[in-house]
Amino acid sequence: MDNSGIYVGLDIGTTSIKVIVAERVKGQMNVIGVGSERSNGLSRGVIVDIDKAASAIQSAVRQAEEKASIEIKKIIAGVPANLVKIERCRGMIAVADESKEINNEDVQNVSAAALVQSLPPEREVLDVIPDEFVVDGFDGIKDPRGMVGVRLEMHGTLFTGPKTIIHNTRKAIEKAGLQIEQIIIAPLALSSLVLNDGEQDFGSVIVDMGGGQTTAAVIHDHQLKYTYVDQEGGQYITKDISVVLNTSIENAEKLKRDYGYADAQQASDEDEFPVEVVGQSTPTQISEQYLAEIIEARLDQIFDKIKQHLDEIHALDLPGGVVLTGGVAALPGITDLASQIFGTNVRTFIPNQMGLRHPSFDEALAVIKYQAALSEVALLVKSTLTGDTRASVALDFSTTTTATPATGQQATTQPQATTTTQKTTKKQPAKQDPDQASGFDRFKSFFNHFFD
């Protein structure tokens, strides 16, 4: 359970695959190698061709190996929040040791108890996070090991995802000749990197703007509470430029990176650049402002959809505001545009490591930091996902609200247990007139109806 040494983070994105090697020395994380390769075999953040994805992963890993001068065998992989469901879980066991002192085995057994439930055949457990342990009725315990008790309970958060997405990710990584040390849900990892302690505690929204999709995640009380995935990203912006300017996808991507602005008001209508137009022998001159108008139109659409779903749960009333990350977040002026649409404070997170000062590296860095920060008891709980721990258990599950990415509709899951099942019905937040409701009332409504 030693959280020290070499960490390798893998970000399998729609447009690029990134590998970051970091060494932890005396609590300090130092990046020693980076690999980046153009993605192949992916669509909207999901692997659709295992062989092509495996080849791209191999190439990115080789680059990182050369720079870090090490051989990479194990990686920590981030997975997208597509169709992720968040559920509450609870397990209870009798302490096995005659002395009644709780040990590692008891923690693993109670974790296994919390995982015993009926899942649809198309779903698989992605992650389990312990929220608290209860020893003989005494709650709020973070690490029960060494304590004396007769009954041990664990209350946690369970994340499940589509079996196809998880299987394809595992298969591609294994075909690349690598072992998976841990699979981590991207929004969970990003929260540990892009948010400070206060933002994670009081609540913030992370908007991860990738090439194939845009993910909004609500973090509150250091927990992932809600996700929404819009199947539009940087590739859609590139396609818009290609169609409107009648140029190739390659040229459109270059124009977006070299001359693109997210906010047309910040672009110049006097500065022009040449564009190679299909069917014309000579380039056409286009102004920065005209290009920015094309980009802004698509971003307006993406942000409007996200705002609509976040408004339903009053997430934009959280004091932490919105933090933008992902490759698209590098566009100049995007913070101002997002602030105008969301109506709250917005900032863009950029890593401060030398050579990685671009938001597209955030996820690969985040999975490393997240894994390195896990406590021993959290690692014990996670080990039950692949272990063979058995226990006699009593279970209790309740539902949690999430969103189905394809439609953005809220969905509830009602897990089944072998003994008892508890069903909780969530009330929809009451709509308030923003001119009449105070900030306190909006926060109170949000907490009461969403985080209870």
UniProtKB/TrEMBL annotation:
Residue spans of biased composition, Low complexity class: 404-423
Primary location: membrane
InterPro entries membership: ATPase_NBD (IPR043129), Cell_div_FtsA (IPR020823), FtsA/MreB (IPR050696), SHS2_FtsA (IPR003494)
GO cellular component: cell division site; cytoplasmic side of plasma membrane
Record keywords, A-Z: Cell cycle, Cell division, Cell membrane, Membrane
Domain of life, per lineage: Bacteria
Key word Cell cycle present: yes
Keyword Membrane assigned: yes
TM ranges: none
An annotated GO BP: FtsZ-dependent cytokinesis
Compartments in which it is found: Cell membrane
Domain SHS2 stretches: 7-194
Membrane topology: Peripheral membrane protein
Assigned protein family: Belongs to the FtsA/MreB family.
Self-association and partners: Self-interacts. Interacts with FtsZ.
Protein's job: Cell division protein that is involved in the assembly of the Z ring. May serve as a membrane anchor for the Z ring.
The protein's name in its UniProt record: Cell division protein FtsA
Annotated organism of origin: Lactiplantibacillus mudanjiangensis
